[in-house]
Amino acid sequence: MTMDAGTPIDATPIESLEDAARYLESGCKPRDQWRIGTEHEKFGYLRDALTPVPYEGERGIAKIFDGLVDQFGWTPVIEDGCAIGLVQNRASISLEPGGQFELSGAPLKTIHETCNEVHAHLHQVRTVADPLDIGFLGLGMTPNWAREEMPRMPKARYGIMRAYMPKVGGLGLDMMHRTSTIQVNLDFESEADMVRKFRVSLALQPLATALFANSPLTEGEPNGYVSWRSHIWSDTDPDRTGMLGFVFEDGFGFERYADYMLDVPMYFLRRNGGYLDVAGKSFRKFMAGALDATPGEKPTLTDWKDHLSTAFPEVRLKTFLEMRGADGGPWSRICALPAFWVGLLYDAASLDGAWELSKDWAPAAREQLRHDAARLGLKAEIGGRTLQEIAIDVLELARGGLKRRAFLDTGGSNEAGFLEPLEEVARSGRTMAEVLLAEYEASGRDMRALYEAHAY
After folding, report:
1. pTM of the predicted protein model
2. Are 217 and 437 in contact (CB under 8 A)?
3. Phi and psi dihedrals of 79, rounded to 5?
4. How far from each other are the two terminal CA atoms of the chain, in whole angstroms?
5. Which H or E run includes 40?
6. C-alpha to C-alpha distance for 215 and 230, rounded to whole angstroms
7. What tens digit of pLDDT does each residue of 397-455 get?
8. DSSP result, 51-79
9. CA distance linking residue 449 with residue 413, whole number of Å
10. Is-contact 28 179, C-beta < 8 A?
């Protein structure tokens, strides 16, 4: 769940690099406790006008929140008198800066459970939103809205980020307001297991970008990319994004990642029920008690947790690993992302196979692949092979891993069926973005037809 001003504070002091690394290490879990946490964002829109849903008003996000509370028992999260999120059991609904509606799912054991959770969530949202004539769009980028059209959510931390983003990159405000993603959070058993999973998932994140590429339009025009969302991250903030080459270096572990995070500039501190703007300041200085905004004060575990959530590399480490390379997409792709990564990372043979496939890629080639995947999709190349060829091999590994997990639904099917939308993309070599663009042009650039085709 996104941290907010109302989240309880853990005042455990963080006084050293070892303290910071120890928190990351606390995420280690035995295999039988590994879980799957799936997050997905979507764009709400007014069906009659094809415009973004504002926060307030009779057809606003606050009304949707009210409906979810009244009809389905969610509990609101309040900041400065406004509902900025909802919680229920171990799941949460939160708002991204431009009103993107995000479900952060509960930690679940199987992808069958994840898909049931997504289905229930979309049913609830439709039940509340349909009477308001509000729909939800599953794409990685708003296809026609300009940045200035996007509503702004009443979350103080976003105001701090909006002021800081233009100082460090050209597209950070677009990242905040006009992009949408699917992510999955996965566990590790030990430091060695974390390192192996981090390296494999980071190397293959551009493949996920290509397989899920779904954002070829900006303000109604082709933008020259299959994943403009992924391209946006290359011009957001170099201090907190990217492929993290040090992950592949000898000696990488919890302490090395914590050391990296100490030099990622801060955004904010939560103090006295609100947010203190410390954008651009050093957490390393904070840990030494030398932060100008809080002289003599040292960080708490809550400060460290908050800070960890403000780095945006392609794979992010907290007390679990977050896969961050995929565009938002339709219902089937929400289930396909955890299937892809669980099949690779939660099965030893598949993990070994994926590492053998990617271990010899040079650092510069991995970085170039990140950019090429956003532009060329499955036509991008690394190590003399196209991403299409690699995708076919990697999806076979993932399928094998899911079969060996042998978690069956009530009909006796294992989890491998969730990979089928990705296998179709790999066989054809055409990303979702290329199909969308062809359909858009064939329709005479009919934006309403596009919305209808890609709404939930």
Report:
1. 0.96
2. yes
3. -135, 125
4. 23
5. strand 36-46
6. 9
7. 999 999 999 999 999 999 999 999 999 999 999 999 999 999 999 999 999 999 999 99
8. EEPPSSSTTSHHHHHHHHHHHH--EEEEE
9. 34
10. no
